[in-house]
Amino acid sequence: MAGATIGGMNATAADYRWLGDHCPDLVEAYCATLVHAVSPEEAIGRLRARADGRVQGIGALVEAAARAWKESGGDRHFLGLCAVDGWTLMVEPNGYLGSLDEAAVPLSRGTELVAHFRNVNAVDHFSRYVDGELRLHFEPLFPHERDGADPDGAVTLMREVGFDLRDDSADVEATTEAAFALAERLTGVRLTAGLLDGAEFLTGSVPVF
Fold first, then answer.
1. What is the DSSP letter of 150?
2. Relative to the CA of 198, which of 4, 79, 89, 191 has its CA 20 to 30 Å away?
């Protein structure tokens, strides 16, 4: 699995401080999912999603998501997918599909998936699946509470990227940035403003379960 090649990565929460300035509407409520060795088109198929078209750049994706939300009345999950370094990145502005078992299990069959989600009420989740099995799950605001088949397998990386794992910690700063950094450590995929602005996203939608 790709996770075996993460030794050289050194991302921390500080590397994702740009998110709040560059993508404020996105990071307020989003789901970001990375699936290894699965193309955007194959991911759409695994989700049984309807492909809708393509948009260029994260700004256009956020705008398209807002339009789709109004048109569907909130009855469909809107997705934007692009290929990055052997992975597919699925971005959901104001979405959460990638954080659900119903999506993560089929997407991760025979491969690996890392997803993190946050909504406007600061509810957040971070998950890693391998071949359909949930290996790690925690809430970035409460990183000391973990579950999954291997809940402690990424503890060292979690500390290194900036999570405070003490159960009495009141440190809730930069948890979203730390989630992005941990996803990079686990996948080797570094997201940058330039990458998101230049990406061509295949868009699609799935009925809300």
1. S
2. 4
Give me the number of domains the chain comprises. Answer: 1
Domain range for 124 is 13-188
> Which residue reads 């109004």 in tokens?
70
Strands (DSSP E) contained in 19-70 are 30-36, 50-56
How sure is the predictor about 4, in pLDDT bands with cuts at 50, 70 and 90?
very low
Tokens of 33: 């999912």
**pLDDT tens by residue, 143-152:** 999 999 999 9
Per the domain annotation, does 2 fall within a domain?
no
Query: Could you give the CA distance from residue 169 to residue 165 in angstroms, rounded to a whole number?
Result: 7
State the DSSP code for 199: P
174 is a domain residue: yes
Q: How far apart are CA 142 and CA 157, in angstroms?
A: 16
Tokens of 19: 């998110």
